[in-house]
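Here is an idea for our session: we take a single protein and study its fold together. To get us started, please write out a protein record for me. Once you have written the record down, we can walk along the chain together.
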Amino acid sequence: MRAGAYSWRSSAKAIDRLKSACAEIRAVARSEPVIAAEGVIALAQRIWPVFEHIDTSSGALGTAVRRMLDELLPILIDAPADENTRAKWLELLREAIIDDGVDNLAPIAD
């Protein structure tokens, strides 16, 4: 998923890519939970830059992002990481939440 890769009419394509990313992170979580958690962070950081030009008036993309977060946040929470790593993750998530233009990452902020 790259910033600016989708036009304003690419909602369905973006949702498919989001589902693929979720499936990949879930697969990695089985054997490498810390790496999967870092994948959750990386995906959260990319949500706004990748989806900012897509027309989200239907709500489908926002719903897909919320479902993705519901699936992936437990991976992040349950990852066996030390305090320093978690502090780094928290800072990266804070920056992603601040940069998020439409509050897609609101469930993380809570």
In short: The radius of gyration is 14 Å.
